[in-house]
Fold this sequence. Notes:
Elements: H1 6-20, H2 33-41, H3 44-53, H4 57-73, H5 76-106, E1 112-113, E2 120-126, H6 131-146, E3 150-156, H7 162-174, H8 180-188, H9 196-205, H10 210-217, H11 220-235, E4 243-246, E5 249-252, H12 256-264
Parallel strand pairs: 2-3
Antiparallel strand pairs: 1-3, 2-4, 4-5
Helix pairs in contact: 1-3, 1-4, 7-8, 7-9, 7-10, 7-11
Amino acid sequence: MRPHTGVSFLALFVAAFSFASCTKPADKAAETGEAKATAAQVTPGAVNSDVLKALTAEQQAAVRALIRDELVANPEILLEAQRAFETKQARLQNEKVAAAFKTLKSEHAQFSFGPANAKITVIEFFDYKCGFCHAAQGWVANLMQTRKDIRVIFKELPILSENSTIAAKAAIAAHNQGKYLPMHNALMTAQGDLNPEQIFQIAASIGLNVPKLKADMEKPQVEATLTGMREQATNLNIGGTPGFVINGKLVSGFNQEELENALATAGVDVSNPPPVPGQKKS
């Protein structure tokens, strides 16, 4: 008679899949204290330990054989589980972004362009050395020129290299001379390695006082601004660029169709949703 292992099989299968899905090292930028605490509370090892205590050696062998046979016969199970996991993670992340939207619009939002009371707010996290950010530049610039109902907020997120950080600091410091946007556009359309020499040549070409720019880049306010933007991205698990937030909806990467769809449904500020019919608004 085959041992009854339905519940144990399910628990061990979940535990086994959890190990398989955690082989990629976590990005330090996304490893928040909250994530660490969650991982500490529920671990595959703990699930395995509890299940194994309830099984005999014969039952353990039977469960392992069932798992192996099922995965060999139907390997698409792992793909289905992975897709379900990714869908759930995306939903949870979007809920987190939506809840933080009001803060994103108000904190470290000095590099904003368009009406303050605009119906739609587009926030972009970017890196000046990111090719996809460069590809998105034309789309963003066109929004700023043609859509009077949109406010665009730029958030520096240098993650690719040290030159990325230097470029970000140069753009932030250019704000002191009233030239953040010209500097941003020039850096985003620049070709080449974007090393310090090139960054300062670009600054000079748009009329910035380069000695003043260099001095301003060393000021604590510039570092504090950059740190604040990085922390916002980390808290929302935005570890890649570009990352767009459109009225609280996150769109990762430059997918123009997805971005256009997000704009089309962005009529309501999700950080302050309308009350449910019959429910009083607090």
